[in-house]
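Re: [help] complex structure
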Amino acid sequence: MKLYDVEASGNCYKVRLLASLANIELQLEPVDLANNEHRKPPMADMNPLAQVPVLVDGSSVLRDSQAILVYLAGTYGGLAWWPSHAQGQAEITQWLSFTANEIQHSLCAARLVQKFAAPLDKAAALAKSPAVLLLLDEHLRNNDWLAMARPTIAECAVYPYVALAPEGDVDISPYQHVAGWMKRLETLPGSLPKP
Amino acid sequence: MKLYDVEASGNCYKVRLLASLANIELQLEPVDLANNEHRKPPMADMNPLAQVPVLVDGSSVLRDSQAILVYLAGTYGGLAWWPSHAQGQAEITQWLSFTANEIQHSLCAARLVQKFAAPLDKAAALAKSPAVLLLLDEHLRNNDWLAMARPTIAECAVYPYVALAPEGDVDISPYQHVAGWMKRLETLPGSLPKP
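Output below.
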């Protein structure tokens, strides 16, 4: 099973984090973004969004880090990280959407500008970041984990760009419940340090 | 089972569309956005993002239209709209992320500005829209449906803001495979006209 991967990508880190936590073996295939490998075949055929990560498992080809988390956890992770019942799946999906939209356009976008000179509006991204972190902090005030009272793929989806946020000049230090949650995740067996 | 709903909201329409297609009974509870009902308790407690829709089913409270689709289809829709196996769930999740991110910040954002005077960048939203529609069109050139070769909640998640895109001055007429897919969806039993 092959993961087309970029070490510094938070979206790729989401998948590597789950694989490490759930003991799923992945063959990493580095993608050369600087030479636009993601915009050329075969990468561009596998993902017309021209993004990493892409997972290839036999005849199955998947783009989108959230979709890959669902696939890996549901296929190889037992029921620990992605449950079989719709109530739990929906609880988790709330956070998959939150990372695809709110986190992507705040914490992640600020880092993309700062670290990779992406042509995005860093001021707008920074302006959205406190509300995102505050919502997380309020949720984690009363919950040890994002969904289902236990670590799930919601953690793998949300943690990476929170942990990497300081690289985009976002100050996460005021959010003590977020800090506690990060510490809990970082001390789970198999947790993987951020890139 | 109660859906906190705004008639003109494409995100609420996603849920109403699934309910209609899958014959799931919902009690609609209109939310008065003009009077900021979504920013005050009890709505703000149910969804700290201060958005509709919100679904309440017994003790279960869910925000986020994608999460609500997963819950309703998985709990009340049999296996027709949301399968039990991770491969199908992941195929669909690719499109749930696509609507939460790419469609939200293009087709949806342009309409929010045009129709509701939302403080967003309409020019930026319009600039992103052709790539979103082209990706859909290319996918639908070789596929009748978005995932699993049959209608699923991917359709409920993606169709609404495509169908409503002309309200944001986005021209969808060049995309003939998208048009064919829309027609197929609109002629399914129980399909619900756009608001």
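The longest helix of chain B spans residues 86-116.
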